[in-house]
Specification:
35% of the residues lie in helices and 29% in strands. The protein has four helices and five strands.
Length: 109
C-alpha cells in the first residue's frame, strides 16, 4: 500500500493536510513534518487533517492527532475510514475531535 501526505495550498487561513495509506511509527515522518510547519504558522486559523483515505492507523497516528489537537486548530475531514474509526472508538478518543463529512465542511468550521 502506498503511503503519502499531501499539503494543499492554504486558502483563507486554512491548511489541508491529506493522508493516504498506512500510518504507524515507521511512516509518520512526512505527516509530522507537514503538521509541524502548520502548527508553527501563526497565519493559519484551521488545520484540516483529511483522513478519508487512511487504510491503517495505530497509536502513533492517534498520538500525533492529539498533539495537533492541542494547537486548538485541528479539524478532521472524514468520513473516517473503518480502521481509524475503530481505533478512535476503542480508545474512546472520537469525542475529542471535531469531525466533518468532508474537506469543504472542515474548511468552514
Amino acid at each position: 500500500m502506498e503511503q503519502g501526505v499531501v499539503v494543499l495550498p492554504d486558502d483563507g487561513g486554512v491548511r489541508v493536510i491529506t493522508c493516504v495509506g498506512e500510518f504507524d511509527q515507521d511512516t509518520l515522518g512526512p505527516l509530522t513534518a507537514a503538521s509541524a510547519a502548520a502548527v508553527a504558522d501563526p497565519s493559519l486559523r484551521r488545520i484540516v487533517l483529511d483522513v478519508r483515505e487512511v487504510t491503517f492507523a495505530d497509536s502513533s497516528l492517534l498520538n500525533h492527532m492529539v498533539i495537533l489537537l492541542r494547537s486548538g486548530r485541528l479539524v478532521l475531514a472524514g468520513p473516517v475510514p473503518p480502521r481509524l474509526n475503530r481505533l478512535l472508538e476503542l480508545t474512546e478518543a472520537r469525542a475529542l475531535f471535531t469531525i466533518t463529512d468532508g474537506v469543504d465542511e472542515a474548511r468552514a468550521v
